[in-house]
Design brief:
single chain; mainly alpha; binds zinc ion
Length: about 170
């Protein structure tokens, strides 16, 4: 995301940095046999929404700055912002990711915590719920990356549904 008016919404990532993050996301998801293909990296200008204080920068405020007409009709859209309240969120398109996540480190955690946040949010895209097992990818507020057998089964099933290879119930 690009924004002159709101520095928190202005990404610091260039295309090479995004590609590197997605490579790490694919390393995290490799044990599930799931690989995300990067379709394109676009610089999208944020809407000039009314400013808010940092602590008021909630999901809906960030989401309201994102021009939805720029979304890909075929891909999962991931929007990077420099900083916001939550580390990331997904409740319908797009996935939104902060480049300054706050988290507790766990053993075997993500090499790059931003990649960990992307991988976590893509878990939500694949219908996975939060877990409190600290080293798990789906634990909130931690940089763990592990997936259990049930999550791998569920995520693979959902990925196949998205790809149209098995019927959606
Ligand atoms: Zn989550």
């Amino acid at each position: 995301m690009q924004s002159i008016l709101h520095p928190g919404l202005q990404t610091s990532l260039n295309e090479a940095a995004v590609r590197s993050l997605i490579n790490e996301v694919n390393t995290i998801w490799a044990p599930a046999g799931i690989r995300f293909h990067l379709e394109a990296v676009d610089a999208v200008q944020a809407f000039d929404i009314v400013p808010k204080k940092w602590f008021e920068r909630d999901r809906n405020w960030v989401k309201s700055a994102i021009p939805t007409q720029r979304f890909s009709p075929t891909a999962i859209d991931v929007c990077f912002v420099r900083d916001m309240g939550p580390n990331g969120f997904f409740y319908g398109e797009p996935v939104v990711v902060s480049e300054a996540p706050e988290f507790t480190k766990v053993r075997g955690g993500a090499d790059n915590p931003v990649a960990g946040v992307i991988a976590h949010e893509l878990g939500h895209v694949l219908f996975l719920q939060h877990r409190q097992d600290h080293t798990n990818l789906m634990a909130s507020g931690r940089d763990g990356v592990s997936l259990n057998a049930q999550e791998i089964r569920d995520a693979r099933q959902r990925a196949l549904q998205i790809l149209g290879q098995v019927p959606t119930p």
